[in-house]
Amino acid sequence: MTTAQGQPTGAKGPPPSPAIALWAVAAAFGTYFCMYVFRKPFTAASYAGGEVFGLPEKTVLVTTQVFGYMLSKVVGIRVIAELPPARRALGLLVLVGAAELALLGFAVMPSPMHAACLFVNGLALGMVFGLVLGFLEGRRTTEALAAGLCASFILADGVAKSVGTWLLDQGVSERMMPGLADLLFVPPILLFVGMLSRVPPPDKEDVIHRGERSAMDRHDRAAMIRGHGLGLMLLIGVYLLVTIARSVRADFMPEIWRGLGVEAAPETFARSEVLVAFFVLASNGLSVLIRDNRRAFFAAIGVAMVGGLMMLAALAGLRRGSLDGLTFMVLVGIGLYLPYVVIHTTIFERLIAMTRDRGNLGFLMYLADAVGYLGYVVLMLTQGLIPTGPSFLTFFSVICGVIAVLTCLSLAASWVYYARRTSALKPPVAEV
């Protein structure tokens, strides 16, 4: 039995099994970490001097892959919301296999067909996150598990570029490098998907604390969107903003490092992202200690606002000359990933638990992802707005400054919206 806020009443049940939690987070982390190596190594190459349809080759390649990824998110709004749990593991293997075949095609297909191969790669990989997240949601430990999952793509982004740079340094061509990097990670991803398939579903205590997660038909999806209106629009708006800045930082990291006066060696990418991942993992994973779903929801909005303020502080320090390149990249990375990850791990999870709406986390995440990546595609298609020379750091700084301000304003508005909407709910019953 639960209160109107989705809080459990009565005596506490047994604590969640640490062994199951460790198994689940290791399987999810490993699966998504490997997936990133199927997606990001090509961004370590500069493709200098190359053109496709009269445009810089790297800009076209990034845009093409992101467009496929974005389209996959749109399709995933329905597919992830409706997919039965028993089909998730097989779905993961099919998608990863298609992504690798696309990269092998990228190595051998003539221009501009090689860019179309990256579209297929993005289309295949866009639904991987939702499938992995489905194994983790609706548990008392969901935030910690999802934080581990999100830490994988923070860390893997740098590692994927390091692997790509290392292969280039060994003499592998820019076209061959992505497919070869992927082949190195086929055995581990098979292992981790096998581990995911053995994660047990949420137990009875999980359902009491977080609500039952069910597949959603189109009526359920429409009802959830209507029921949250402006609040959901504001949260998805924040996700759109940080997705744009995070994606620019990820896809053009070599250019940003050069603008900071740092040569982008293989270890450079991994060093900054390890620090970012550690901080974001710790700050988001600790939200499992807040049992009250409403308090955890508003605490998560506060954490996201801290991220926006950190970005502004980093930009101010860079302008004054008081920060070195590594410190700036770490602070901006933390500032971007705090709101990005807290939406993945806590805000949507606790929103469902607090309201007890019929639904699942995958639907909300793919709705936000579709909007976020659509915004990035629009930016990439406006090619003249993306300088690739010495002015790229200035461009990135302006984007981060504007997005940090708008993020803080949108989060403050969403706080007010949900505070008013939930103020009439009964306080949680004290547990004995």
UniProtKB/TrEMBL annotation:
InterPro entries: DUF5690, MFS_trans_sf
UniProt KW Transmembrane keyword: yes
Spans through the membrane: 20-38, 89-107, 113-136, 229-248, 268-290, 297-319, 325-343, 363-386, 392-418
Entry keyword Transmembrane: yes
Keywords: Membrane, Transmembrane, Transmembrane helix
Name of the protein in question: MFS transporter
Organism: Tautonia sociabilis
